[in-house]
Give the backbone structure.
Amino acid sequence: MSPEITRPLPPYMQVVTHLREQIITGALADGDVVPSERQLERDWGISRSTATKVLGVLRAEGLVTSRQGVGTIVTTKTLHHSAYDRTRAVEITGRIYPKGQYAKILSARIEPASERAAQALGIEPGQEAIRRQRVTYAESGAAVSASTSWFDLELAEIVPQLLSTERIPGGTAKAIEDATGRSWTDADELLQARIASDEDADLLGITERPSAIIVGYNRLVDESGRTLEYGEYLCHGDRITRYSYARPRD
């Protein structure tokens, strides 16, 4: 089925939004060729000038670049995929990670919750919760990011996969939804830059010290306002996390 232009977004922004999401979620990976102006013109029923504008916006955002003899290609080697990006990626592509990336689960066990995790989950600090730690790697084997997810202890029996070091097809949020019917409706994320500790540097394979890293704190929340998952991640200081916002309309 061919894509269609709708309102209220201008036609070029509808195409930009579609391609941007394909790139952010990894459906179009680093090095992939994006549709040419001619193909966009044909697929979307837009003018050549509109198609040119689409690629120009993506180029200005640093998501694509032009390569002679090849066309316009995706450039996302330094793009960090947020928790929201990964969750959307599952919904769109069925994969959690972009092509060329994979994860290893380092541990999955019940532990006393940290102060931040307890606050996010609505429990007392030190109260037991489920903790999963993973490292994401590029195809080369270099660590891209390290993350830790926390879940309410009540999910231990309902979603036993959370306590397994095997990867969960479709991701943790989907596993919880399948088992409980609870799905996420909102997400929030905080970012902070700081100097990597020795433990951080070891996880990310950083040899030059001191080095700056980016630390993120995120929550997935269900419609009742309860936290489905609280996560903390580390990534290299040169990684880019991208956000886009629509201006509110009266």
Strands lie at 64-67, 71-74, 79-80, 101-112, 128-138, 143-152, 184-195, 212-222, 227-236, 240-241. The CA atoms of residues 107 and 159 lie 16 Å apart. The longest strand covers residues 101-112.
